[in-house]
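Entry type: protein chain
Record version: 2
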Amino acid sequence: LPAPIESNPLMKWKAALSGAWVLGAAYLLLWHRQLAWMGDDGFFLAGATRILNGQAPYRDFSVHFTPGSFYTLAGALQVLGDSWQTTRLLAVLLILGQATGVFLLLHRCTSSTTVSSIGFGLIVLPAALNPVYNHHHLSTTLALASTWALWRWLETGHHRYAWIAGLSDGLVGWVSQNKGSLLAVASIVVLLILKQGTWRDRLKTLGLYSLGGATVAAGFAGLLIAQGAWNPFIADGLTFLTGSYTQSSFVPYGTLQA
């Protein structure tokens, strides 16, 4: 990673980010009918509707994803109303969240509001031109939170950021197990290799990272058990995933099967 660069005056980058938000929101709202909050909209909408009707993933309908997306969308529909406008608003907020993360990371690298604003635009502009270019805005936004936490850990050495990274990676896994597993491998490599120090200190950091992920996993397991969906989850979310589904999606599922 590059050495820290002195930031521009606080008001300058705040003004640039605020302006980017206004323009980005206006653009996305103008083309909101083109937006999809993820590539498998119909699949997740059907699952979210079932949840609102009192059903549970795995127990009442077959799911080979972890259920974070279903519950996120069901919660949004419950709070904001059961309509397409809710899903589009959720897409707008997630896309702006990603763009904000990219803006802040680029500004940290370059100290340039111009470069940061260009990065913001490169996230926002394709959203309407190709609605599924990202395919999954929720897991991407959560992954950016993990990236920020790892960056802060590398800069400061504070172990709490490793815990935040583990929590963020766990939430990515709660949304999409394949993305979560790949992100966890990348994060562990960063934790063990990129920061100098004793192995004892590295293992302590890895333990806190694991604790963050375990917090999400424990909540996930508790929900499944409470709903009577643990055994169906093993069948659909693990056995099927590392068996039949690997034939069409080798990485990372085929790797698990091998």
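Comment: The radius of gyration is 20 Å.
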